[in-house]
Amino acid sequence: MTNLQALLAAGLPELKFEFDKLLAPQTYFKIGGPAEAYISLDKPEKIAELKQFCEKNQLRLTILGGASNVIVSDKGVAGVVLNINITDIEDTGETADGYHFVQAGAGIKTALLVSQTVAMGYTGLEYFLGVPGTLGGAVYNNSHYLSDLMGEHISRVQIIDESYQLVWLDKAACKFAYDYSRFHETSEIILRVEFALKPGNKEESQAKIREATEYRAKTQPLGPPSSGCIFRNTPNNDKLRQMFPQFAERTHVPSGFLIDQAGLKGERIGNIEVSQKHAAWMINHGQGKSEDVLALIKKVKETIKNKYDVELEEEVFFLD
């Protein structure tokens, strides 16, 4: 028995951890080593208890949801890896200013949330059907479809705060921005999300879903393992506006466009390749390693810096 196993057994005997659990099969990229300790929980009070125990004992606690936007180290993840398994969805029956409120657990698949809200007769989330992973991750990073941000549809978010209390934060307090929320800067844990949705027409909602699905199929490499977009879109500047006048009126230039223009589509290190279909994506041809992903990211960033004087920023998160 390791020191960590002994510590968890003594301090949290009612919780059942898995040790050295391989994480690669759970990730969309199919990359990554084992979690030192892994547990999936669906009771807020147990999640709060675990959070408090880990912080008291200076144990690293990593939240892993659908693992769609992460790159897990080949060496694995130290400490405790926690999966939030709160997956219910509820039409609360409450309304305000023409909106209806729907609450969902952070562990629900984002695609299931969308299909369920459409079945309930509500509109607003259709374009997020193709967002992979779970709701907690989508809220954490304020997922987007083109210019439509997840946070725009949220009324409030229930969290475990840094004092281990269950509290609700309204939308303004969440500080949603492009690929950002306050949760990037805190150790708060997202438990539930409340959406403000309008009544919709199911046929029109299905048409929106088909539109988004067809667009993704045409523009994204949805077959091979990947973590979606590796890079955020790049803030526009005078130099880029001169070079690419088609984006002159935009606040951002697509990172995939810059990578494509730099001739990096198909660039490959080991089994990791810059996608031929969408240059901001990288795909795993099988047995890919996180070190190869990191090396390819470095090469792409250096090339773009040298060619356009732009610093690409990663959209994915690294876990080790």
Structure, described:
The radius of gyration is 21 Å and the shape is globular. It starts with a helix and ends with a strand. It folds into three domains: 82 residues, Uridine Diphospho-n-acetylenolpyruvylglucosamine Reductase, domain 2 (2-Layer Sandwich), CATH 3.30.43.10; 118 residues, Uridine Diphospho-n-acetylenolpyruvylglucosamine Reductase, domain 3, CATH 3.30.465.10; 99 residues, Alpha-Beta Complex (Uridine Diphospho-n-acetylenolpyruvylglucosamine Reductase, domain 1). It is built from nine helices and 20 strands. It is of the alpha+beta class. 29% of the residues lie in helices and 28% in strands. The model has no long low-confidence stretch (mean pLDDT 95). The relative contact order is 0.13. The strands form six sheets. Strands 6, 7, 8, 11, 12 and 13 form a six-stranded antiparallel beta sheet that branches. Strands 1-2-5-3 form a four-stranded mixed beta sheet, covered by helices on one side. Strands 14-19-18-17 form a four-stranded antiparallel beta sheet.
